[in-house]
Amino acid sequence: MLILLAFIIVFHITSAALLFISTIDNAWWVGDNFSTDVWRMCSMNTSTCMALSDQFREYQSIQAVQATMILSTIFCCVAFLVFILQLFRLKQGERFVLTSIIQLLSCLCVMIAASIYTDRHEELHKSNEYSVDVSEGQYGYSFVLAWIAFAFTLISGVMYLVLRKRK
Fold it and tell me: How many Å is the Cα radius of gyration of the chain?
């Protein structure tokens, strides 16, 4: 039982780390001389970064991705705290339903964020306000980590739903 508990905790912490990295790091869309994320665009030629603001087309889509990624990270951290509390509060044989619900909300939020970015990436990168041409790029590792975090949070949410407290 102790090994299973350690695995669940490590899995949850890994999910949270993936969410933090994919939310914060500047590599959702990358090219030879630039990288962009949901916060800023950095040019490798001039070593400057420019924050994305409401002057960009499709800024509302970027804000939706920002909000849902932040919510996903918060839900994942709250789910971990609730799990730790439920370890001490639940009676033997009860399920971790509250933790599961919160973790599945985190899963839903990261799925929404990555889906919006996937759907709107062409329009997001056609804006004339960028200092370099960002339309010729590809998805970066932060975007991939967001989708991996979706899978991890989904698995852990289902795992909490099935899991029963044992002595």
Answer: 19
